[in-house]
Amino acid sequence: MGLFLSLERSLALMLISLITVCTLSDCYDPLDPNGNITVTFDINQWIPEGYVARVTIQNYYQYRHVDKPGWKLGWTWAKNETILSMAGAFATKQGNCSSFKFQTPPHSCEKSPVIADLMPDALSENMPDGCCHGGLLAAWAINPSKSFSSFEMTIGNLGANPNVQAPINLTLMAPGPGYTCDLIEDTDPTVYPDIGGKRQLQAYRTWKSTCTYSSFIANQAPVCCVSLSTFYNPKITSCPTCSCGCREADKNTVSCIREGYSAPESDSFDNNDIVQCTDHMCPIRIHWHIMTNYVTHWKVKLTISNYNYERNYSNWNVLIQHPGFSQSTTAYSFNSAMLPSFGFSDEVALFWGIEYYNDELLYAEEDKVGAVSTQILLRKDLDSFTLRNGWALPRRIYFNGEDCQMPLPDTFPMLPNVSSSLKPTNPVFLLCIYLTFKRLFT
Ligand SMILES: *[C@@H]1O[C@H](CO)[C@@H](O)[C@H](O)[C@H]1NC(C)=O
Ligand SMILES: *[C@@H]1O[C@H](CO)[C@@H](O)[C@H](O)[C@H]1NC(C)=O
Ligand SMILES: *[C@@H]1O[C@H](CO)[C@@H](O)[C@H](O)[C@H]1NC(C)=O
Ligand SMILES: *[C@@H]1O[C@H](CO)[C@@H](O)[C@H](O)[C@H]1NC(C)=O
Ligand SMILES: *[C@@H]1O[C@H](CO)[C@@H](O)[C@H](O)[C@H]1NC(C)=O
Ligand SMILES: *[C@@H]1O[C@H](CO)[C@@H](O)[C@H](O)[C@H]1NC(C)=O
């Protein structure tokens, strides 16, 4: 009776937490609940019929970066604004400027301009600080100094007594769809340090909007899956079949086309990948191998494999949730950092490549995949460490911020029956794990 009650209770608890996580995952990532990309417009100077503004795009996502081909920022002007000039970025269309006579042609007369970043080699004089990264923004936890981008624009055509208004309908492609931006609102003016921090300058007016990512809106097919193995069992648990799509019936083809985003209204952002044909069809596979069990430590080998034929991943990152990361953790061939776990009982560690060594995950060739790997040494918490019940296997893995498909717990490599003293698997524990992972398949 007691067992039955506790089973029922944990079932109910699991269901409640499942529902919360499922609802939340459509809105934001529970492992990075404060992540966002903030877009700030700082007006720093009034000019006749307009103003000069500095626009800053700041990526506050811990492990979600803006990759090639880079961000594109769009909005709709509230009035008759015209971009007279721009430094550090460019509007993709000049639009109809035919009504501007006898003056330098404006940079863009579009009602809804779209702005893209310049490449680093476009640097010339008068470029604002923090400009020209080819639209790339690093993740906040990895490289805060490269997590923002700035450009300057001079706005005119607002009439003699301008009553300036923030633009509306901000859109951020970073790259492709997935981001939703709030209304642009007036906030406290930005303060800048001057004279080495001894003096503070203040913007005349500051407008802000935050943009948040949802893989549901991005309509992103899963990009990665997880496979597992251990030293104590020869069985290798492969990625779940059809994790990222199903391979065609013809098993002889070597390369398959995997469809990524499907967003017809996006600016022809094509994310179809040519990948090696596998049963999981994922462009990325992450393998967790439990290598060694020492007295005070245990060791894992982590391998990230790229099954794309044409795509390298620069500045890749992998996020892993595992209770073992609460103890001292050393990754030999990757950079690593612990992240706040926001009330989850299992710790979260972020891994990324070492510059000029393995920060580029190369594409696959013929029958060989591109891969990077590291060994990770973890200290044991002797109270919780166990090889039983799949405890030493990861709970959740993300690649570049996207949730990876985990195998089901009933396929995990199990400890062999060395002695009859080994307790049988606790059914409640298995059920809980099963429910947690089931979420990933819905
Ligand atoms: C955006 O992220 C920053 C940094 O995490 C945070 O301070 C700010 O409150 C966030 N904004 C919103 C609207 O969530
Ligand atoms: C925009 O310009 C047109 C023509 O110059 C003018 O009629 C109109 O009132 C202006 N609109 C605003 C919102 O200022
Ligand atoms: C361009 O703008 C002018 C003046 O606003 C207008 O007369 C003309 O029809 C526009 N041309 C096009 C192609 O829209
Ligand atoms: C802003 O976006 C909304 C929703 O897409 C649209 O209905 C509205 O017309 C847009 N406003 C302007 C001025 O473009
Ligand atoms: C991937 O990286 C390799 C080696 O740096 C380079 O030769 C190749 O052109 C890159 N491929 C793509 C698609 O960027
Ligand atoms: C382990 O023991 C259980 C129960 O005694 C048995 O059902 C199972 O087949 C055994 N597994 C292996 C791998 O020997």
Automatic annotation (TrEMBL):
Q: Which InterPro entries match?
A: COB_C, COBRA_pln
Q: Which UniProt keywords apply?
A: Glycoprotein, GPI-anchor, Lipoprotein, Membrane, Signal
Signal peptide range: 1-27
TM ranges are: none
Q: GO terms for CC?
A: plasma membrane; side of membrane
Establish whether keyword Membrane is in the entry.
yes
List locations, semicolon-separated.
Cell membrane
Topology in the lipid bilayer: Lipid-anchor; GPI-anchor
Example of a GO biological process term: plant-type cell wall cellulose biosynthetic process
Segments forming domain COBRA C-terminal: 224-413
Family assignment from sequence similarity: Belongs to the COBRA family.
- Under which name does UniProt file this protein? COBRA-like protein
Q: In which organism is this protein found?
A: Gossypium darwinii (Darwin's cotton)
- What lineage is on file? Eukaryota, Viridiplantae, Streptophyta, Embryophyta, Tracheophyta
